[in-house]
Design goal:
single chain; 153 residues; mainly alpha; 83% helix; globular
């Protein structure tokens, strides 16, 4: 009985937080900016993957496309998602960019490792592995953007 009650409370807590997250304008804006960055990153990844037919081509295509998506994501999230008219940011634009690049480098290392595992170990096609990895990063980034990079005073 005790376990059931805990599971029930946990499920209520999760549903409540999912509702709050999806009803938040910033989260919805984050998804729109993220979809745009995803599209730009994925199309550049496919284009580079078709151009670079060498053994290191997968990592090069991943790194370049990730960098392009990063730029689109930073500008969109800075100027659209987390842009606040009534409050000022806790950190300067330069400090935000440094934090953003730090997160990006961490994400790049994680995504490169995951893509390598998915493609070389699990034999998933690179195009599918890329999509899986990109969707795994979504909640992680939103939480860090909101509470670490674009935090308001």
């Amino acid at each position: 009985m005790q376990i059931r009650l805990r599971m029930y409370n946990l499920s209520r807590y999760m549903i409540k937080n999912l509702y709050l997250m999806f009803s938040d304008r910033r989260f919805l804006s984050y998804i729109v900016v993220g979809l745009l960055a995803f599209f730009v990153e994925y199309v550049s990844f496919l284009g580079l993957l078709n151009i670079l037919h060498v053994s290191y081509g997968l990592s090069v295509a991943q790194t370049i496309s990730f960098s392009v998506g990063l730029l689109v994501s930073f500008l969109g999230n800075r100027n659209y998602t987390f842009n606040t008219k009534d409050a000022s940011y806790r950190h300067s634009k330069k400090h935000q960019a440094v934090r953003y690049v730090t997160l990006a480098i961490t994400n790049l290392l994680i995504t490169n490792a995951l893509i390598y595992i998915f493609v070389d170990q699990l034999l998933i096609m690179p195009m599918v592995a890329k999509v899986i990895v990109m969707f795994l990063i979504i909640p992680w980034n939103y939480i860090l953007f909101r509470s670490f990079i674009f935090k308001v005073k």
